[in-house]
Amino acid sequence: MAEAGDASGGWLARLSGLGSYVCSKMNYHEYCSHEYTGIHTALHGLLEEKEKVEQEHKARLQLIAAKEELVKRNEELEAEIQSLKRKLQASEASDTPAQGSGREHNQSGRVQITSVQKRKRQSEGHAGEDAEEHEAAEILCVMNSHEQGLSAELRDVREETSNINAELIKGFLDMGGVGRQNITVKYMGQLSERPFLLACLRKFLRKEAEAEASRLCKFWQEQLMNPEWYPFKCDTTGGISEETINDDDVKLQELRATWGEESYKALVKALVNSFLELKECGKLSDRTIVAQLWNFKEDRKATLSESVEYVCSKVKSLSNKNVRTSTCGY
Q1: Residues 240, 281 within the same domain
Q2: Does 272 reside within a domain?
Q3: What gap in Å lies between CA 60 and CA 133, rounded to an integer?
Q4: Where is this region: Disordered (predicted)?
Q5: Is residue 295 included in any domain, yes or no?
Q6: Are residues 307 and 257 part of one domain?
Q7: C-beta atoms surrounding 91 within 10 Å
């Protein structure tokens, strides 16, 4: 009795330790997810801001080019005007060319000074824009590095979560995880023998029906595991495409002819459910059955947190039972 108690106590301690480990890892996973989401959102906003700055920079360059073209055109017009003035003044007085040349020189000097000042302002503007772009590039580099680090951590956490899920499944199976429990193990893609038994009971006595149901379930499970068998067709109604069962499939036609319409519908429903389970697990291409923690009470996948809580409640229940047993034995 003492050895059994020690073994049970060790098993309970391991399960309790696993539960604490899972809870800590789930909290860490949640923290990393929030951190990753925040960084990703900030990076997305920064990229949008960078694109906006680049667009504004491009618009400024276009405006500068337009201004330069306008200044050039104005200078050409001014030169033509001055040339016409000189010609007019040359016909009126002989001293006009010298005065005109002086004015031209002064005007040219002003244009040169203005042009130099303009180029200086443009150069200073480009330098400021280059500094902003350089700073934005550095921030992006840091953000990308941080995001890559978080992505690596998330991959590690997902791998650990997968390992924990596998350990939980093993633990559920070790403590009789298949049966009437709120949370237990379900094999996704595996046919249930019950609809086949109900169909066979319509034609055979109980013992013969059980044997025939087992044979039928095994046969259709083999068909289901064959990647080349896909008894569905694409049905387009009202412009919406939807996959439906292909009643013209040879195997399904034989099933309907042998077992009748009522049994046919029940068995096809079971087959479709198994197909959907394989598709949900991403195993439709290789048709591999997958063990999954399942909440049978709500008919859905069980989360890690509720699975751990369920294990902890079982551990507590077994601990109390062992205490009562030890007390009675004493």
Answers
A1: yes
A2: yes
A3: 15
A4: 85-133
A5: yes
A6: no
A7: 9
Distance, in Å, from the CA atom of 221 to the CA atom of 224, rounded to the nearest integer, reads 5
From residue 201, how far is each of 3, 77, 216 by CA, in Å?
A: 48, 105, 13
Q: For residue 270, with 0-12 CB atoms within 10 Å meaning exposed, 13-18 middle and 19 or more buried, which class applies?
A: buried
Decide: 271 and 224 in contact? Cβ < 8 Å. yes
| Residue 168 burial (10 A CB sphere; 0-12, 13-18, 19+) | buried
Specify the DSSP element, H or E, that contains 134. Answer: helix 96-174
100 inside domain? no
Beta bridge partners of 240: 237
- Residue whose tokens read 């001293």: 95
Q: Are residues 240 and 259 in the same domain?
A: yes
How many domains in the chain?
Answer: 2
199 and 278 in a single domain? The answer is: yes
List the domain range (segments joined by +) for residue 258: 194-288
**pLDDT (tens place) for every residue of the chain, 330 residues total:** 455 455 555 656 666 677 677 777 667 666 666 666 766 676 566 567 667 767 777 777 776 776 677 677 767 767 766 776 676 666 666 545 444 444 444 454 444 445 545 554 555 555 555 666 666 666 667 667 766 777 777 777 778 778 888 888 887 787 664 446 788 889 999 999 999 999 999 999 999 999 999 999 999 999 999 999 999 998 887 778 888 899 999 999 999 999 999 999 999 999 999 999 999 889 989 999 999 999 888 888 888 888 888 877 777 776 666 656 555 555
Tallying the residues shown for the chain, one arrives at 330
Looking at the domain assignment, is residue 256 inside a domain? yes
Cα diameter, the chain? 139
Question: pTM of the predicted model, to two decimals?
Answer: 0.52
Cα 295 from Cα 172, distance rounded (Å): 13
